[in-house]
Amino acid sequence: MKPSTRMFYREGRRTPGYSRFDFLHGYVYGRWPYLYIGIGTGEHRLSGLVRGIIAFIGWILRLGKPTVAGKAPSRPDFSTGEVHQPVTFADTYHGKVVPLVAATQLVRIDRDLRLINLEHIIPYAKARDIVMHDPDHIVVLECPCRAARPNPCLPLDVCLIVGEPFASFVLDHHPRRARFISSQEAVDILRQEDERGHVHHAFFKDAMLGRFYAICNCCSCCCGAMQAHQHGTPMLASSGYVARVDADLCSGCGTCVPACPFEALSLEEGQSQVSTERCMGCGICTSRCPNQALSLAVFPAKGESLEIFAIMEAAGLR
């Protein structure tokens, strides 16, 4: 067993509610991410078989359990008498959209950090903590989503694994696809991906100790999470912002429309229009407008932003 695997296991033992099955799941995910993501995106030849097996197991587990209007049964909490909504796939594996400024903060943390119960920022039932050990340990990994595609966007090395035990685990098991980088190199990658029009997501996963572990720089043509989100699986949480158009500055050139990764912009009557429902507040459009007519505005209905420095300051950690 590699030292990083032992580190991962020990950290799992210290994490409340983290089971041996969770560790096994996390090990498989971290050890074979290209197979895992390839199956998840449907690009791997075993995708149909594996999905069929998972669906069959789910059917067996649901036998005899009541459903309402075809939905999965709710989960009663016998200690409180409350009934909770069922945990979905999106609750166990999801991303939070972070504009460039917020993304760069996540790779500039200079101390260990423990922030839990962040449901006001990470609106999922599971995997919503930020617990960081050695946050300056950053590894860049070839993107499993891009690598799974026959004609991927380039470059491939754009996934940032942040902190321990994740960084060492990934480097130990993927030495040909990963390398340690400095915080400044991580910032450079984020800026370059932003210039390419790709979205920064802070990713959380239940099997990865139920916490933040990576920043992915995602394109809508390769990213499995973005495609799942567009097809009705709510894997992505808004940044907490939406784009706003300054009508006095907008010339109606339409440059911003194809640049939006979430298809939230349109050109109507010579003006750019924003669909607040579709907009995820990534900020990609704001740097594309030649007239600086687009900006991000706080939108409380979309939740709170993951501005880690502000969260740390509010918690008395800065």
Q: How are the secondary structure elements laid out?
A:
Elements (H helix, E strand, L loop, with lengths): L2 H12 L5 H12 L1 H9 L5 H16 L12 E2 L6 E2 L4 H4 E5 L2 H7 L6 E3 L14 E13 L1 H5 L8 E8 L1 H8 L4 E4 L1 H13 L3 E7 L5 E8 L5 H7 L5 E2 L3 E5 L10 H4 L5 E4 L2 E4 L19 E5 L9 H7 L4
Parallel strand pairs: 3-10
Antiparallel strand pairs: 1-2, 3-8, 4-5, 5-6, 5-7, 6-9, 8-9, 11-14, 12-13
Helix pairs in contact: 1-2, 1-8, 3-4
Characterise this structure.
- The chain has 318 residues and is of the alpha+beta class.
- The protein has two domains: 3-237 and 304-314, no CATH class; 241-302, Alpha-Beta Plaits, CATH 3.30.70.20.
- Helix content is 33%, strand content 23%.
- The protein contains twelve helices and 14 strands.
- The strands form four sheets. Strands 3, 4, 5, 6, 7, 8, 9 and 10 form an eight-stranded mixed β-sheet that branches.
- Strand 1 and strand 2 form a beta hairpin.
- Helix 1 runs antiparallel to helix 2, helix 1 (3-14) runs antiparallel to helix 8 and helix 3 packs across helix 4 (47-62).
- The longest helix has 16 residues, at 47-62.
- It is globular, with a radius of gyration of 20 Å.
- The protein starts with a helix and ends with a helix.
Which short descriptors sum up this protein?
alpha+beta, two-stranded antiparallel ribbon, about 325 residues, Alpha-Beta Plaits, eight-stranded mixed beta sheet, 2 domains
Summarize the structure.
By secondary structure, the protein is an alpha+beta fold.
